[in-house]
Design brief:
Number of strands: 22
Distance between the termini: 71 Å
Radius of gyration: 23 Å
Shape: globular
Number of helices: 15
Bound molecules: nicotinamide-adenine-dinucleotide
Strand order of the largest sheet: 14-15-16-13-12-18-19
Largest sheet: 7 strands, mixed
């Protein structure tokens, strides 16, 4: 049963997927440890179910299952072409699940369905891309040596752990899991305690593809379970997406026995608007920067830096566009902006805004929001000191600052300790490129804001506090591999 407009599954079908389970050694087991909070439907503000974590014995069982499987060589020694075939099978099964994954995700994260449907194409595309890496021969290459060819082998490091946040859980999980499996590693996924359900649908796709039992497992819980996973000596590679605090804790655990790690953390992304920018395009960019993933996007707009000659026009045009946004239920096809993820996150974002307001800033909001649910009207903040707006807020909130020269704009942009995304608007593309090249950030988009990557095969790096290591098709694959160089020695 679907809505004609967008293939939105019916609520009755979506609600069937709100039964939490751990997936350990091929079995679905209900977690029983209560975390004392709830998973919410943020569109209504109502709780869906209590948050639960995996029992300690089951967690240990998951780790042992993965470890034994790796030691057995069952998957590690499967030839790359056979691994690729299995991943392609998984991609085919997962493709059919995308509307349900998107529906479940919209229901319990509040991200609007058109976005979850678009983003969750990654679920199957990630498996296709990881299979493509295997088919390309990337795992085995040669270079000339003193006595014949020298082999460069990429071998699985061992048990892998994937930890994801609540803003786009299934797509982030699929990218990590697909690459870990492609590399030859058993993988344990831990979804966010705030949004575990869409990740559970991966089980259906991977079971149907016939993966060896225990190769892919899921455990549930919060920071405690995450810490136990990343601290366990049998785990050798970790891909983590989340906030700075969690990232630092993961890095500290990895430092003990030098686990391979990839950290994708927050951002406080600047948009530089030059004096000659097309104001309409800028306003469109501001709205997209504030509202994509309901503003809970690591590449969301955090600081709007506008040339002072057009400051007033940009502010007015942006607020005018924001005023006409349709804000509401994430599963209503007419909705353009959904709620924040849960009441606790909403309180955190509101408190950050209140703190800035208390420093004499001006808060601008033009869009009206429903009375019930975790809604927040998109917010622009003027008259703040740039020094006070360096931290990520992770909501539809941006500070507006002015500049007079390019140097000043670049200095303001580079002032944040983060460095994930960035934007430049100018009618003169050469000028925009000159500015963009000087921004200390993983990527800069010119004259537009979009979830689409500039090129899917380009790396997605992180500077400063935005992470460690790069994300990308080959880059994520490499997180799970150790290299060995083998050849005949010079005589
Ligand atoms: P979070 O760090 O609170 O939680 C993320 C995940 O890590 C959850 O599964 C959580 O249970 C787990 N976790 C938390 N503390 C941990 C610890 N000490 N050890 C192990 N695991 C731990 O983040 P969140 O609030 O769920 O997500 C929001 C953050 O994620 C924002 O900062 C956002 O910018 C970031 N994010 C980054 C990217 C990216 O690609 N760089 C993408 C999405 C979200």
């Amino acid at each position: 049963m679907t809505s004609p407009e967008m293939d939105i599954p019916s609520l009755a079908d979506i609600e069937k997927h709100f039964t939490l389970f751990d997936y350990i050694d091929g079995e679905r087991i209900p977690p029983t440890v209560e975390l004392g909070s709830f998973v919410y439907n943020p569109s209504t503000g109502e709780p869906i179910a209590p948050q639960k974590a995996t029992d300690p014995e089951q967690l240990e069982r998951a780790l042992q299952t993965a470890y034994r499987l790796h030691q057995s060589g069952v998957w590690a020694n499967t030839p790359p072409e056979a691994r690729a075939e299995m991943l392609e099978n998984a991609a085919n099964h997962l493709m059919t699940l995308v509307p349900m994954i998107a529906g479940v995700e919209s229901y319990h994260t509040g991200i609007i369905f058109s976005t979850t449907q678009f983003v969750n194409a990654i679920v199957w595309l990630a498996f296709r891309a990881a299979a493509g890496v295997l088919r390309s021969g990337y795992v085995f290459s040669t270079v000339p040596g003193p006595c014949g060819d020298v082999e460069i082998l990429r071998k699985p490091l061992g048990v892998a752990v994937a930890i994801v946040p609540w803003n786009s859980p299934a797509a982030l999980a699929a990218h990590k899991v697909a690459n870990a499996l492609a590399a030859g590693c058993p993988v344990i996924l831990k979804p966010s305690e705030w949004a575990p359900y869409s990740c559970l649908l991966l089980v259906e796709g991977l079971e149907a593809a016939g993966l060896p039992r225990g190769l892919f497992q899921i455990v549930n819980g919060g920071a405690d379970v995450g810490q136990q996973l990343v601290s366990d000596p049998c785990v050798r590679a970790i891909s983590f997406t989340g906030g700075l605090q969690g990232g630092r804790a993961v890095a500290a655990a990895c430092a003990h026995d030098f686990k391979s790690m990839q950290l994708e953390l927050g951002g406080n992304n600047a948009m530089i608007v030059c004096a000659d920018a097309d104001i309409d395009k800028v306003a469109e960019g501001v709205v997209a920067g504030l509202t994509t993933l309901n503003g809970q996007w690591c590449r969301a707009l955090g600081r709007l830096l506008v040339h002072d000659t057009i400051y007033q026009s940009v502010l007015e045009a942006s607020l005018h566009r924001l005023a006409s946004l349709r804000i509401g239920d994430a599963l209503d096809p007419a909705t353009q902006l959904g709620p924040l993820a849960n009441p606790v996150h909403k309180a955190r974002v509101e408190s950050a805004i209140r703190e800035l307001a208390a420093r004499g800033t001006c808060i601008h909001r033009t869009a009206s929001v429903p009375a019930h649910g975790c809604y927040l009207s998109p917010t622009l903040i003027t008259d703040a000191s740039p020094q006070d707006t360096l931290e990520e807020i992770f909501g539809p909130v941006a500070a507006v600052h002015t500049f007079r020269t390019d140097e000043e704009a670049i200095q303001l942009a580079n002032q944040s300790p983060y460095g994930l995304g960035g934007y430049v608007f100018s009618r003169d593309e050469e000028h925009a490129f000159r500015i963009a090249r000087q921004m200390n950030t993983g990527g800069v988009k010119i004259n537009g804001v979009s979830l689409l990557e500039l090129n899917i095969d380009a790396p997605r790096p992180a500077w400063g506090l935005s992470g460690f290591g790069e994300e990308g098709t080959l880059e994520t694959f490499d997180v799970f591999c150790g290299k060995s160089v083998v050849g005949v020695a010079a005589r």
